[in-house]
Amino acid sequence: MQAQDKLPLLSVRELTIALPAGGDRAHAVKEVSYDLHAGEILCIVGESGSGKSMSANAIMGLLPPYLKPQGGQILFQGKDLLTQDEQTLLSMRGKAMAMVFQEPLSALNPVMTVGDQIAEVMRVHDAYPGEARTKRVLELLEFVGLPDPATLIHSYPFRLSGGQRQRVVIAMALALEPALLIADEPTTALDVTTQAQILALIRRIQADKGMGVMFVTHDFGVVAEIADRVAVMERGVLVEVGPVQQVLNHPQHPYTRRLIGAVPHGRAKARDQQAAETVLEVRDLRKTYSSGGGLFSKKRVVNAVDGVSFSVRRGQTLGIVGESGSGKSTIGKCLLKLTDIDGGELLFDGQDIARLTERQFRPLRSDVQMIFQDPFASLNPRHTVGRIITDGPIANGAALAQAQARGRELLQLVGLEPSAFDRYPNQFSGGQRQRIGIARALALDPKLLVADESVSALDVSVQAQVLQLLADLQKRLNIGLIFITHDLRVAAQICHHVIVMHKGRVVESGPPDQIFDAPQHAYTQRLIAAIPGKEWDPTLIRAAA
């Protein structure tokens, strides 16, 4: 990191951004000030709505039209960015400052090749003419660690994995070697090993190029892994800023202490494994997918689930962990009969549901319910919360009055006000929507819940609340829970038993303290080694939270 007596690369001074009238607060960002030096990584942390992404978008001049800075300065390379016209900002974006967005698939044009999209950044700024442009694209693809750049340059985004797409977005951002790189939640949707690779790449870029990096995140493990300094935001206000060791290990503000207190610590503990009734037994489950097989291509067969066996007991949680593509979500689809299986048995309460037709399975569908990953996409925006929760019971023969009364009870059970019954999903936060999804799943009194990455998109404090809610509900209702996740820290916290998936197979299984404290398989060891910030122990300051 550069000496702090030098002028900062970026200086945000008393930045204030007003919100439209009628909301619960007047400002998205209020009188925020911080500096970023060349050769430094500054992490901006906070929950959704804290203003961290808003301030980053203000730097890039990418605020929506209805949001206008009311005051302050953003000083970058001697210019106040808030006073520059759009043409000047256009000349700076990509060349002097660049941004890496959270969702790479949305950031990339689906009908342009990877090479053309990277080259477009150079074309806009009249850089690297002729053959030099293609050479530069190949250099960038190699620099960010992508395989076979000469072939990849002609590929389309949909053919790449999530981690590869994120590397392409980073290559675009680096094309003209900007002095400032802003990364807005670039690893949130990635599994732990891909996340580790992207974090290592960003650290290497920052060291090689000496650029200043602003990293926006809600993941304190990421902060512990890469930050030089940390700025903490709450409801648009900067509440704490300082060196990473000071903020993480000696937080001063109560909000920072609460956030750190909610971080899953990854320390597995032995859980009660006393005998309970088995609600589900999976034996030798197999599912394959085929593609290709045309005139010019060979048929490709992928063993998504390859001979998987496990059991789930009432009142206990089975964790299924692994990288993207390991087969864990496919198992969830098989259990709910959302896809056909190619072999094996699914014994639910002793009955093999794999052999049942859809008509035969329909009476049992209410016994197996799913909590989906995305609390925004999984709720119908045109239906009230009450209808979302009661549609299932009514379709299964419940009287309207009975279903509505039960729906209101469930809202209270998941920690929401009964008045939520008559409101719409857009009136709730992400954590509240996930609670609505849980209430919907419980409305049919299931014996088994399948939670597929149900907390991965949530802020750390909301995540802690939802995890505690699931644990309380499980204890109270004595239901079995299958918890599918790529976050090993969360699995260690909530699960009674864990299976580790790799390329469709179970490579290791056991209680969480065994899996996480003494992993036996090399793949499990790699997963645990890739956990960001694993050397930092948030439990050391929990007493102060």
From TrEMBL:
NCBIfam families: PRK10419.1 (NF007739), PRK11308.1 (NF008453). It comes from Cupriavidus basilensis. The keyword Transport applies. InterPro entries: AAA+_ATPase (IPR003593), ABC_transp_ATP-bind (IPR050319), ABC_transporter-like_ATP-bd (IPR003439), ABC_transporter-like_CS (IPR017871), Oligopep_ABC_C (IPR013563), P-loop_NTPase (IPR027417). Keywords: ATP-binding, Cell inner membrane, Cell membrane, Membrane, Nucleotide-binding, Transport. The keyword Metal-binding does not apply. One of its GO terms (biological process) is transmembrane transport. PROSITE patterns: ABC_TRANSPORTER_1, ABC_TRANSPORTER_2. Pfam families: ABC_tran (PF00005), oligo_HPY (PF08352). Transmembrane segments: none annotated. Residues 10-260, 280-528 form the ABC transporter domain. This is Oligopeptide transport system permease protein OppB. It comes from the Bacteria. Belongs to the ABC transporter superfamily. One of its GO terms (molecular function) is ATP hydrolysis activity.
